[in-house]
Inverse folding.
């Protein structure tokens, strides 16, 4: 079952606008996959993107990655965070969000 984040700026007498957590998951997954296609031998995502809502209007996105030893962790995680942030700003510009990229495994 999907959870929804109500967008306060778009609430009117006629109704409300809300965005499903599944929409945020899809946007973040597509953005992360875009980065991983640039680095096919260096990084992969062993588990799906997780989305949760903090309070009434904050989205938290958690991405777990597996990375090859020797690859700069900070550059890959920054690239993934930046791409996800860019995608979220394009699609849901008024929603505040946190993006957490965690390294869960090192590959040889």
């Amino acid at each position: 079952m999907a959870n929804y984040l109500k967008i306060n700026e778009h609430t009117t007498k006629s109704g409300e606008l809300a965005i499903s957590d599944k929409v945020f998951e899809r946007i973040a997954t597509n953005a992360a996959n875009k980065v991983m296609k640039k680095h096919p031998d260096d990084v992969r995502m062993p588990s799906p993107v997780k989305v949760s809502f903090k309070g009434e209007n904050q989205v938290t996105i958690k991405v777990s990655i597996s990375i090859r030893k020797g690859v700069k962790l900070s550059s890959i995680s920054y690239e993934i965070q930046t791409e996800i942030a860019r995608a979220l700003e394009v699609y849901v510009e008024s929603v505040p969000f946190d993006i957490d990229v965690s390294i869960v495994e090192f590959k040889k």
